[in-house]
Amino acid sequence: MANEVVFRSATEQDLERIVEMLADDKLGATREQFALPLPEVYREAFRAIDADPNNELVVACLGEEVVGVQQITFTPYLTHQGGWRATVEGVRTSSTVRGKGIGTELINWAIQRAEQRGCHLIQLTTDKTREDAIRFYERLGFQATHEGMKMKLK
Amino acid sequence: MANEVVFRSATEQDLERIVEMLADDKLGATREQFALPLPEVYREAFRAIDADPNNELVVACLGEEVVGVQQITFTPYLTHQGGWRATVEGVRTSSTVRGKGIGTELINWAIQRAEQRGCHLIQLTTDKTREDAIRFYERLGFQATHEGMKMKLK
Question: Which residue on chain A is closest to B73 by alpha carbon?
Protein backbone atom coordinates (compact mmCIF):
# COMPACT_ATOMS: atom_id res chain seq x y z
CA MET A 1 0.00 0.00 0.00
CA ALA A 2 2.73 2.45 1.00
CA ASN A 3 4.35 2.36 -2.43
CA GLU A 4 1.19 3.78 -4.04
CA VAL A 5 1.53 7.08 -2.20
CA VAL A 6 1.57 10.11 -4.48
CA PHE A 7 2.82 13.51 -3.29
CA ARG A 8 1.58 16.80 -4.68
CA SER A 9 1.10 20.45 -3.71
CA ALA A 10 -2.04 21.00 -1.68
CA THR A 11 -4.89 22.95 -3.26
CA GLU A 12 -7.59 24.91 -1.47
CA GLN A 13 -9.94 21.97 -2.19
CA ASP A 14 -7.77 19.85 0.16
CA LEU A 15 -8.03 22.32 3.00
CA GLU A 16 -10.98 20.83 4.92
CA ARG A 17 -9.33 17.41 4.94
CA ILE A 18 -5.97 18.92 6.00
CA VAL A 19 -7.49 20.82 8.93
CA GLU A 20 -9.41 17.67 9.93
CA MET A 21 -6.05 15.83 10.13
CA LEU A 22 -4.37 18.69 12.03
CA ALA A 23 -7.19 18.59 14.61
CA ASP A 24 -7.09 14.78 14.93
CA ASP A 25 -4.02 14.84 17.17
CA LYS A 26 -3.46 15.00 20.94
CA LEU A 27 -2.06 18.54 20.83
CA GLY A 28 -3.91 19.66 17.69
CA ALA A 29 -7.25 18.77 19.27
CA THR A 30 -6.83 21.61 21.77
CA ARG A 31 -5.50 24.19 19.32
CA GLU A 32 -7.34 23.71 16.03
CA GLN A 33 -10.94 24.41 15.17
CA PHE A 34 -12.23 21.91 12.64
CA ALA A 35 -15.75 23.03 11.74
CA LEU A 36 -17.61 23.36 8.46
CA PRO A 37 -17.65 25.80 6.91
CA LEU A 38 -13.97 26.03 7.74
CA PRO A 39 -12.96 29.12 9.76
CA GLU A 40 -11.73 31.80 7.35
CA VAL A 41 -8.37 32.03 9.19
CA TYR A 42 -7.35 28.71 7.64
CA ARG A 43 -8.18 29.93 4.12
CA GLU A 44 -6.18 33.12 4.70
CA ALA A 45 -3.20 31.10 5.92
CA PHE A 46 -3.48 28.72 2.96
CA ARG A 47 -3.39 31.62 0.52
CA ALA A 48 -0.35 33.16 2.23
CA ILE A 49 1.50 29.82 2.09
CA ASP A 50 0.45 29.20 -1.51
CA ALA A 51 1.62 32.65 -2.62
CA ASP A 52 5.10 32.25 -1.09
CA PRO A 53 7.66 30.46 -3.28
CA ASN A 54 9.63 29.59 -0.13
CA ASN A 55 6.73 27.68 1.43
CA GLU A 56 5.31 24.41 0.15
CA LEU A 57 2.26 22.66 1.58
CA VAL A 58 2.44 19.06 0.43
CA VAL A 59 -0.17 16.31 0.67
CA ALA A 60 0.33 12.55 0.44
CA CYS A 61 -2.48 10.77 -1.41
CA LEU A 62 -3.57 7.16 -1.68
CA GLY A 63 -5.79 7.17 -4.72
CA GLU A 64 -8.27 10.01 -4.21
CA GLU A 65 -7.74 10.11 -0.45
CA VAL A 66 -5.47 12.67 1.24
CA VAL A 67 -3.67 10.69 3.97
CA GLY A 68 -0.83 12.99 4.98
CA VAL A 69 0.28 16.59 5.04
CA GLN A 70 3.37 18.63 5.81
CA GLN A 71 4.60 22.17 5.28
CA ILE A 72 8.17 22.80 4.18
CA THR A 73 9.70 26.27 4.50
CA PHE A 74 12.92 27.12 2.66
CA THR A 75 14.98 29.89 4.25
CA PRO A 76 18.19 31.58 3.12
CA TYR A 77 20.57 32.22 6.01
CA LEU A 78 23.95 33.90 6.32
CA THR A 79 25.06 31.29 8.85
CA HIS A 80 26.82 28.11 7.65
CA GLN A 81 28.40 30.15 4.84
CA GLY A 82 25.17 31.38 3.36
CA GLY A 83 23.27 28.12 3.43
CA TRP A 84 19.58 27.45 2.74
CA ARG A 85 17.65 25.38 5.26
CA ALA A 86 14.42 23.44 5.03
CA THR A 87 12.08 23.52 8.03
CA VAL A 88 9.30 20.96 8.30
CA GLU A 89 6.14 21.74 10.29
CA GLY A 90 2.56 20.55 10.61
CA VAL A 91 3.34 16.92 9.77
CA ARG A 92 0.26 14.70 10.12
CA THR A 93 -0.84 11.37 8.74
CA SER A 94 -4.41 10.15 8.71
CA SER A 95 -5.41 7.95 11.64
CA THR A 96 -6.82 5.54 9.01
CA VAL A 97 -3.33 4.67 7.72
CA ARG A 98 -1.19 4.58 10.90
CA GLY A 99 1.60 2.00 10.86
CA LYS A 100 1.75 1.82 7.06
CA GLY A 101 4.89 3.89 6.68
CA ILE A 102 3.16 6.98 5.27
CA GLY A 103 4.93 9.24 7.79
CA THR A 104 8.30 7.83 6.78
CA GLU A 105 7.53 8.41 3.10
CA LEU A 106 6.39 11.95 3.89
CA ILE A 107 9.61 12.88 5.67
CA ASN A 108 11.80 11.12 3.11
CA TRP A 109 10.00 13.14 0.44
CA ALA A 110 10.78 16.35 2.39
CA ILE A 111 14.45 15.36 2.63
CA GLN A 112 14.66 14.80 -1.13
CA ARG A 113 12.87 18.07 -1.84
CA ALA A 114 15.25 19.92 0.50
CA GLU A 115 18.23 18.42 -1.35
CA GLN A 116 16.71 19.42 -4.71
CA ARG A 117 16.38 22.99 -3.43
CA GLY A 118 20.04 23.00 -2.38
CA CYS A 119 19.52 23.00 1.38
CA HIS A 120 22.44 21.95 3.58
CA LEU A 121 20.19 21.18 6.54
CA ILE A 122 16.67 20.01 7.25
CA GLN A 123 15.19 20.78 10.64
CA LEU A 124 12.04 20.63 12.70
CA THR A 125 10.94 21.06 16.28
CA THR A 126 8.74 18.60 18.06
CA ASP A 127 7.05 18.97 21.44
CA LYS A 128 9.03 17.11 24.12
CA THR A 129 5.84 15.30 25.15
CA ARG A 130 5.68 13.65 21.69
CA GLU A 131 8.07 10.82 22.62
CA ASP A 132 7.01 8.61 19.72
CA ALA A 133 7.57 11.41 17.23
CA ILE A 134 11.05 12.09 18.62
CA ARG A 135 12.01 8.42 18.23
CA PHE A 136 10.46 8.40 14.73
CA TYR A 137 12.57 11.37 13.60
CA GLU A 138 15.71 9.91 15.20
CA ARG A 139 15.21 6.67 13.23
CA LEU A 140 15.05 8.76 10.06
CA GLY A 141 18.39 10.41 10.86
CA PHE A 142 17.48 13.59 12.74
CA GLN A 143 19.42 14.39 15.90
CA ALA A 144 17.98 16.32 18.86
CA THR A 145 21.03 18.56 19.12
CA HIS A 146 19.12 21.77 19.86
CA GLU A 147 16.62 23.13 22.33
CA GLY A 148 13.45 24.25 20.58
CA MET A 149 12.54 27.42 22.47
CA LYS A 150 9.17 29.14 22.06
CA MET A 151 7.32 32.10 23.48
CA LYS A 152 3.63 32.85 22.99
CA LEU A 153 2.85 36.42 21.98
CA LYS A 154 -0.21 38.55 22.57
CA MET B 1 25.17 52.96 26.78
CA ALA B 2 22.54 50.34 26.06
CA ASN B 3 19.81 52.92 25.56
CA GLU B 4 21.66 54.41 22.60
CA VAL B 5 21.26 51.27 20.52
CA VAL B 6 19.58 51.84 17.15
CA PHE B 7 18.09 49.01 15.11
CA ARG B 8 17.83 49.03 11.33
CA SER B 9 17.73 46.68 8.35
CA ALA B 10 21.18 45.48 7.35
CA THR B 11 22.62 46.66 4.05
CA GLU B 12 25.21 44.93 1.91
CA GLN B 13 27.73 47.44 3.29
CA ASP B 14 27.26 45.85 6.74
CA LEU B 15 27.98 42.34 5.49
CA GLU B 16 31.69 42.11 6.27
CA ARG B 17 31.08 43.21 9.85
CA ILE B 18 28.14 40.79 10.20
CA VAL B 19 30.15 37.80 8.97
CA GLU B 20 33.00 38.81 11.26
CA MET B 21 30.58 38.63 14.21
CA LEU B 22 29.10 35.31 13.04
CA ALA B 23 32.61 33.84 12.89
CA ASP B 24 33.61 35.24 16.31
CA ASP B 25 31.73 32.51 18.20
CA LYS B 26 32.65 29.08 19.54
CA LEU B 27 30.48 27.24 16.99
CA GLY B 28 30.63 29.87 14.27
CA ALA B 29 34.45 29.76 14.28
CA THR B 30 34.33 26.23 12.84
CA ARG B 31 31.57 26.85 10.29
CA GLU B 32 32.04 30.36 8.92
CA GLN B 33 34.71 31.71 6.64
CA PHE B 34 35.52 35.30 7.43
CA ALA B 35 38.02 36.45 4.83
CA LEU B 36 38.32 39.59 2.73
CA PRO B 37 37.14 39.84 0.07
CA LEU B 38 34.15 38.11 1.58
CA PRO B 39 33.28 34.73 0.01
CA GLU B 40 30.59 35.30 -2.64
CA VAL B 41 28.25 32.77 -0.92
CA TYR B 42 27.58 35.34 1.81
CA ARG B 43 26.65 38.02 -0.74
CA GLU B 44 24.29 35.61 -2.52
CA ALA B 45 22.63 34.71 0.79
CA PHE B 46 22.33 38.39 1.73
CA ARG B 47 20.58 39.17 -1.56
CA ALA B 48 18.16 36.25 -1.12
CA ILE B 49 17.28 37.42 2.41
CA ASP B 50 17.00 41.06 1.32
CA ALA B 51 14.66 40.16 -1.56
CA ASP B 52 12.27 38.15 0.64
CA PRO B 53 9.59 40.21 2.42
CA ASN B 54 9.27 37.40 5.00
CA ASN B 55 12.92 37.63 6.05
CA GLU B 56 14.51 40.55 7.88
CA LEU B 57 18.18 40.87 8.68
CA VAL B 58 18.48 43.42 11.45
CA VAL B 59 21.56 45.10 12.88
CA ALA B 60 21.99 46.85 16.22
CA CYS B 61 24.20 49.92 16.05
CA LEU B 62 25.98 52.03 18.64
CA GLY B 63 26.76 55.22 16.76
CA GLU B 64 28.47 54.11 13.53
CA GLU B 65 29.42 50.71 14.91
CA VAL B 66 27.40 47.54 14.15
CA VAL B 67 27.37 45.65 17.47
CA GLY B 68 24.66 43.04 16.93
CA VAL B 69 22.78 41.09 14.28
CA GLN B 70 19.83 38.74 13.98
CA GLN B 71 17.67 37.33 11.23
CA ILE B 72 13.91 37.10 11.71
CA THR B 73 11.82 34.90 9.43
CA PHE B 74 8.03 35.30 9.32
CA THR B 75 6.14 32.17 8.28
CA PRO B 76 2.42 31.59 7.68
CA TYR B 77 1.26 28.24 9.02
CA LEU B 78 -2.05 26.38 8.99
CA THR B 79 -1.40 25.09 12.51
CA HIS B 80 -2.63 27.11 15.52
CA GLN B 81 -5.61 28.23 13.45
CA GLY B 82 -3.63 29.73 10.63
CA GLY B 83 -1.09 31.61 12.72
CA TRP B 84 2.05 33.41 11.64
CA ARG B 85 5.27 32.66 13.52
CA ALA B 86 8.54 34.53 13.85
CA THR B 87 11.74 32.49 13.90
CA VAL B 88 14.96 34.10 15.11
CA GLU B 89 18.32 32.82 13.90
CA GLY B 90 21.92 33.98 13.63
CA VAL B 91 21.83 36.13 16.76
CA ARG B 92 25.22 37.59 17.61
CA THR B 93 26.52 40.53 19.57
CA SER B 94 29.96 41.99 19.24
CA SER B 95 32.53 40.69 21.72
CA THR B 96 33.37 44.37 22.37
CA VAL B 97 29.98 45.01 24.02
CA ARG B 98 29.31 41.81 25.99
CA GLY B 99 27.48 42.30 29.27
CA LYS B 100 25.94 45.62 28.19
CA GLY B 101 22.48 44.23 27.51
CA ILE B 102 22.69 44.48 23.72
CA GLY B 103 21.54 40.86 23.32
CA THR B 104 18.50 41.53 25.49
CA GLU B 105 17.63 44.61 23.46
CA LEU B 106 18.07 42.65 20.25
CA ILE B 107 15.65 39.89 21.28
CA ASN B 108 13.17 42.34 22.78
CA TRP B 109 13.23 44.17 19.45
CA ALA B 110 12.50 40.87 17.65
CA ILE B 111 9.57 40.20 20.02
CA GLN B 112 8.08 43.63 19.32
CA ARG B 113 8.58 43.22 15.57
CA ALA B 114 6.91 39.78 15.69
CA GLU B 115 3.93 41.31 17.51
CA GLN B 116 3.74 44.13 14.93
CA ARG B 117 3.62 41.51 12.16
CA GLY B 118 0.78 39.68 13.91
CA CYS B 119 2.71 36.59 14.98
CA HIS B 120 1.22 34.45 17.75
CA LEU B 121 4.55 32.80 18.53
CA ILE B 122 8.25 33.60 18.43
CA GLN B 123 10.67 30.70 18.33
CA LEU B 124 14.31 29.79 17.92
CA THR B 125 16.55 26.80 18.33
CA THR B 126 19.81 26.90 20.19
CA ASP B 127 22.51 24.26 20.37
CA LYS B 128 22.25 22.30 23.62
CA THR B 129 25.93 23.03 24.30
CA ARG B 130 25.16 26.77 24.49
CA GLU B 131 24.08 26.64 28.13
CA ASP B 132 24.47 30.38 28.67
CA ALA B 133 22.31 31.12 25.63
CA ILE B 134 19.58 28.76 26.86
CA ARG B 135 19.49 30.52 30.25
CA PHE B 136 19.52 33.91 28.49
CA TYR B 137 16.48 33.03 26.39
CA GLU B 138 14.68 31.53 29.40
CA ARG B 139 15.17 34.78 31.31
CA LEU B 140 13.56 36.62 28.40
CA GLY B 141 10.49 34.36 28.55
CA PHE B 142 11.23 31.55 26.09
CA GLN B 143 10.53 27.99 27.20
CA ALA B 144 12.47 24.95 25.99
CA THR B 145 9.30 22.96 25.32
CA HIS B 146 10.50 21.37 22.08
CA GLU B 147 13.33 19.25 20.78
CA GLY B 148 15.18 21.03 17.99
CA MET B 149 15.95 18.21 15.56
CA LYS B 150 18.36 18.65 12.66
CA MET B 151 19.81 16.55 9.88
CA LYS B 152 22.72 17.55 7.66
CA LEU B 153 22.13 17.02 3.94
CA LYS B 154 24.55 16.32 1.13
Answer: A75
Nearest to A145 among B28, B127, B134 (CB): B127
CB–CB of A149 and B127 under 8 A?
Answer: no
The Cα–Cα gap between B94 and B65 comes to: 10
pLDDT of chain A, 154 residues: tens digit per residue: 445 899 999 999 999 999 999 999 888 888 999 999 999 999 999 999 999 999 999 999 999 999 999 999 999 999 999 999 999 999 999 999 988 999 999 999 999 999 999 999 999 999 999 999 999 999 999 999 999 999 999 8
Q: Give the other-Cβ count within 10 Å of B153's Cβ.
A: 18
Which residue stretches of A88-139 are H helix? 102-116, 131-139
**Domain ranges, ordered by start, for chain B:** 5-139
Note the ipTM here.
0.94
The yes or no reply on domain B5-139 and CATH 3.40.630.30 is yes
- Report which secondary-structure segment, H or E, holds B147: strand B143-152
The whole-angstrom distance between B54's CA and the closest CA on chain A is 9
Nearest chain A residue to B23, by CA: A79
CA distance B71 to chain A (A): 8
